[in-house]
Every structure is written in C-alpha cells, then in structure tokens.
Amino acid sequence: MKKINTILLFLALLCTAMGTTYAQTVIPVEPGLGTLNDAIDSYIADNGATSMDVIFELEDGGFYILTSTIENDDPLRIEAAPDAEVRPVIRPNVPEGGDPFRAFRARNDITLRGLFITNKDALGGADSRILRVSEDGARVIVDDCQLDFASQSALRLDNTDNRVYITNSVISNITNLANPGNGRGIDDRGNDIDTLWIENTTFYNLTARMLRDGGGVINYAKFDHVTGVNLGDRSFDVGEFVEAEITNCLFVNPGFLGFDEPGASALQVDSSDLVENAVISNINFYVDPAMQDLYDQLNMGAEAGDSIYVRTGLNSDAAGIAEAGGNLETITDIAVEFNNGPAAPVDYVQSFFEDPDNALPLDDGNGGVDPDNAGQLPFDFGYSTDSELFEAGNDGLPLGDLNWHDLTSSTFDPAVAEEVQLAVFPNPVQEQMTFQFELPEAQPVRLMIFNQLGQPAAVVLDSRLGAGEHQLQYNAEPLPTGTYFYRLELGGRFASGRFIRASK
After folding, report:
1. Domain spanning 31-414 has what CATH number?
2. Cα gap 80→66, rounded to integer Å
3. pTM for the complete prediction?
C-alpha cells in the first residue's frame, strides 16, 4: 500500500458544522388525476428546483394518476405519509392515442419510499420500464415500495456509475409473455455500476431474471435476504465486479423456462481478475415438482437437442467462490411452501412452448392495481417456523426477505445514505483533489482509494469525525494515471464512486 498522503481538514468548517440540523419541507399531495405532476411542477415554478430536503408526501392508500412521466433534473423525493398503512398507488393515465408511458425517468438522484408504483394503466397497457435512470452517478433509493407491471424491466440504467439501493421492497410482474428474455427486474444495459445494494426484497413473476448484467463492471454488489419466485431465465447474473456479497437468499423456480442442456445454473457470477472480495453463502434453490413433471412431459418424444432441463444452483465461478469461503455446504435445495405464494408457472411454460405468441399469463393474484385493493400485496412469501430454512441464514435468521416474517436485519439505512452527500473534484485530477461530504452525526469514518483491480492504493482518512460538512484534500500525484475507486465507509454503510488520475 502506498504511503498515506497528507490530509488537510478545514477546521473552521468542522467547528461550525457540529450543530448542523437538516431542515425538511413537506409538500402534502392530494390523490387525484395529475395532482402529483402538478405539485412537483408548481414547486419548481416557485423555487427553481427540487432537492432531497423537499418531500412530496402522499396520502395513506391514495390513488395518484400521472398525466405524464415524472422526469427530474434535480434530486426528487416522494414518500408515503409516515402513518400510512396502505401504500399509495402511482399509475399512468391512459394518454390520448392509448400509448402507455412510464412512471419515472430520473435524470438526477431519486428517492421513493412507501409507494406502490405500476406502469399498468386503466386499459391494461404497460410501458416497458417503470423507472429509467438517465444520468451518470445518479443515486436511486427505493425503500418499502412495490414496483409492479412492465414489459421489459422495473429499473433500467442508461448511464454509468449509478448507486442503486433497493430495500424492503417488492418487484413483481415484469413480463413479456411472447419474448420472455425482456422480463427483467434490473437491466444495467452493460453500464458500469458503482453500487448495487438489494436487501430484504422480493422479486416474483419475472419472465427473465432479477438482474440482467450486460457486461459492465460493478464496484460493489450486495444481495442479502432476497426472495426470488418464478424467474423465467435464471435468478440473476453478476458480470465482472470488484466486491460482491450474495447471502441468505431463497429462490423458487429460478429458471422456470429451463435450458436445453443439463446442469445449467440459476445464479451466474463472473469471478474475473478484478475481484477483491467475494462472499457467496446460505442460498436455497427449490424447483416445484410440478415443473419437473412438466419438463418430463414436454421431453417425451422430443428430438435430440430439444429436451428441457431444470436450471438450479451456482455456475462454476460462483461455486468456486462459495467453496473458497468454506460455504459450499450452505447452498441447498430444500423444499419450501409459502403461506400464500403464486402458482408455479406450469400453464405459462406449457403454452409458451406450444405457441409463444399466445402464452398464458403468470399468476399475479390480481392485486395492487384496482382501487378496491390498491397498494395491497396479493401474496405472502412467509413460511413455517418449522422449516429447515427458518434459521438457515449466516445470521441465524430465515433465508429470503425477512419482511415476510416481521423481522429486520440490515446494515444499510436509506435515510443515512440520503444525508451523506459525497462529492469529488476535480475529476479527472492531476494533482490535488477534494473530497467533500456531510455526516448526519459524529461517527468513525474511513475513506480509501482502490485501483482497478480492487487493490488498496491509499487510505485517505481513518478517524472519527463530527456531524456536519467536511472537506479533505488529497494529493493524487503519486498515483499512476488510470481509473480509481474511492469508498467512504461509515460503520456498515458507505458511499462510493470513481475518479480518473489524468496525466499532466
């Protein structure tokens, strides 16, 4: 590791910031047609821009019909009222001409909390994506939300270095019945991702997979206590990455369309030379026997090469990571029965292989969209406390999303992530650079720099700092030219990104 460079702390800022408070403006929004669009537009007209200090607050169980896609050029924060018992519903109106439109297109940071967001309009049409992110480095926080119904992906990342945090949420019914490869929870389009943090979240009824990683590098990926049910192609794939933690997950029918060769995996990881740290442990894959019976039926009389085989388990790279960590025996295939889960996709698979253009829909429970059951989940993915899986986590907790068991266990607090604003400038840098951030409270802070191989290049700071605004100057001149990652660690939480060390 290189010698730690001199740190310049701006003491005046530290002293005056100790008493900093975070003022927030709450804008109550009444349910109705266009009321959310109007509230945001009116605030911008009066104030010039939105910010994370402005909360557009939606009523308990309210029905909010969008008149157009909400596109934010400035940070945007939309939340359910703190006392809401039923998630308020956000859905597009049927536009003139009948062409569906998406709910959100983020061109800056966006926080969505406590909401039911669907692309399904009153005529049953649905745009291809619910939330499309079109800005480098944008931070996306989705907490306690359900993103429901789209034909391509719930979340699409058009740009690079985004930070995505999805916690305590549900992503459901992302389906393209005739072209199932487009039913994706998250589609990164091959862009590099700074942070992808998925925790205590459930994905169900996706005709493709939870994450389609199209070839970019993920700096940090975390999948912890994730439940995935009825995933057509596989559970997910993680391409090249620097750090990844995939733990305590529960997958049922993870690859229900099968594969034309035996031994195909449901979870795929690329353990390239970039890997600095990787943990894969405590994961259960279960295929409903009804699906195996269907495969056997479809395979009767099939020509060579046309047979269908179950997808399950880890690919060789993922298995190697699990084995290296001594965790291979924690990868299991124990049967699980949900309290009230969707039907296995037998009818869909059979009809798809007979006539893809007329494939039958998956069991969506008919919940969440209509006013009579707005914001309500039709399923319960909890399971018996007598199950072997109930204490099978590496933390002694149930595998899968803990919310179904009224439990919580997280090292990530979205509220803190919103308040830690980390800026780095100039970028690219030749010599001196500045890290600027705010802390909501006094705490230990560690700021490190890594090279492209994920190897530590410098420790900028390892100390306890007070609440408020901080600026650290770092001399990057000793670093060879190239791309570097920086990571600000706050206990179990962090903010991170990358910078370029340019030549003079």
Report:
1. 2.160.20
2. 16
3. 0.81
